[in-house]
Amino acid sequence: MSNEALSFTSPGAIALEAIGLSKRFGSFKALDDVSLKVPAGEFHALLGENGAGKSTLVKCLMGFHRADEGAVLLDGREVSVRNPREAQGLGLGMVYQHFTLVPSLTAAENLVIARRDAPAVIDWAAERRRIEAFLDRTPFRVPLDRRVGALSAGERQKLEILKLLYLDQRFMILDEPTSVLTPAEADEILGHLKAMTERGEITVLMITHKFREVQAFADAVTVLRRGRVVGGGRGLSTREMATMMVGEAAATAGASGKAALPERRAMPASVGEPALELAGLFAEDDDGRPALRGVSLKVAAGEIVGIAGVSGNGQGALVETCCGQRPLSSGQMFVNGRDFLPTRRAFDAAGLFVVPEEPLKNAAVAGMSVADNIVFRRFEKPPLSRRGWWLDRRAIRAAGRELMTRFRVASPSPDTPIGALSGGNVQRAVLARELSAEPIAVLIVANPCFGLDFASAAEIRARIVAARNAGAAVLLISEDLDEVLDLSDTVAVISHGQIAYKAPIAEVDRGTIGIHFAGGSEGEQGAPLG
Ligand SMILES: Nc1ncnc2c1ncn2[C@@H]1O[C@H](COP(=O)(O)OP(=O)(O)OP(=O)(O)O)[C@@H](O)[C@H]1O
């Protein structure tokens, strides 16, 4: 396979240098003269706020995009990477935010089919020996015979990395590799990678928004801002990195992620009907297995109930059933004491708003413009439409533009298809649509800050608390335990499709939550808390 191409690089870690890379999308310059040097065996972090150009840069390195200008050197020799296959042949591999494994195959089968030189007729016994010998040389352990669909998120992420190592990728690009992991899983995986860099076996370039990980694992950082390199180096403090990313004033407001939270107004003392009540929800996943097994929960007006848990314990199904995207096998949902059936009309009548996770997939139309996506829920109402059917394009554009400014959605124009925005900006646009409505009686949000840079995360969390202060009942479902602990009045843990624990925030301690997390998803060894 790649041996020929790899022959000019040294046997261990590969050094990479990008010189003066520029990339335009139409008239928009996503990368402007970006240079980056990652010596062999370095663990290098790539930072930048949402839309700064991080993904564009690594996509140019991996051959998904062709840079308009600039050069890439591997071990000092210029290479031309025209597509990801060529990147693979040169020893460049990438771990994506989403998993790329085949869920119905076992871990071992996934490794075999990943090989570019996999034979048409596979000698499974020989392959097995080869994989076991390979695994002996790596620190990562995964159950080889288990179907990937039954692996925990941590095990899947290890397998993604093993796949690259199996393919002899010795320059590894990681795009927010820990976003689906518990802090302990993240530390384990990054710790192994760090040790491998120290032994000179691989080089790592990691995109992350987590300063803690940068401080703990990275040897050096490069910071991008609006498509340009604005700083970097070794031994930088969190504050120095934050300032490079967003500028002095914003860094002061948001570096801790907590500073910007508005003061909480006391919850109304009279506890009448809960604004949202879930009563014994049962639902199945796509394979007909139980996903929700009797979820019951009440959320009062002016309260945030935060549901924590290890990824894959029913969070997705819970949000989907509340949105009407997954049928209930049994159970009932009440809003303000009335039976609620999730139809478009019922959402508006009840003042119920939902921000699901992966908003581009679940809450936006990728090919439609940013402005249209933002005003989606108000199309047929004045002033965006007259007599309920005549759409006023100019008013839609103006309303879209106004919300884009308020929620700081960075887009070349209101007419740009939302699918072309960076992940963080899609998130902001969907939040702009759901959080700008008045009044919000019930707000359901899932992983609202997933993939957001620290300043944006602080801003979004502040908006959620503001909605609560204004009287909304908020159901927050988040895999970020710190987020749940920072925002919630009441904390619950979901495990195996059931609410395993629930307590007011004042009575919650991380140890108790850890015990309830530990019943986590299949294959999970418990999910210790960081
Ligand atoms: N295919 C494309 N067409 C048009 N514009 C694009 C395209 N891909 C990226 N962009 C724009 O380039 C800019 C940089 O996007 P990029 O995805 O590289 O940012 P990022 O730093 O990775 O952000 P995030 O942290 O939110 O993932 C954004 O303004 C984005 O809208």
Automatic annotation (TrEMBL):
Q: What is the lineage of its organism?
A: Bacteria, Pseudomonadati, Pseudomonadota, Alphaproteobacteria, Hyphomicrobiales
One Pfam family it belongs to: ABC_tran
Q: What is this protein called?
A: ABC transporter ATP-binding protein
The record's listing under SUPFAM superfamilies reads: P-loop containing nucleoside triphosphate hydrolases (SSF52540)
List the PROSITE patterns.
ABC_TRANSPORTER_1, ABC_TRANSPORTER_2
Similarity comment text for this entry: Belongs to the ABC transporter superfamily.
ABC transporter domain: residues covered: 16-251, 276-521
Record's keyword terms, sorted: ATP-binding, Nucleotide-binding
Classification via InterPro entries: AAA+_ATPase (IPR003593), ABC_carbohydrate_import_ATPase (IPR050107), ABC_transporter-like_ATP-bd (IPR003439), ABC_transporter-like_CS (IPR017871), P-loop_NTPase (IPR027417)
Gene Ontology molecular function, alphabetical = ATP binding
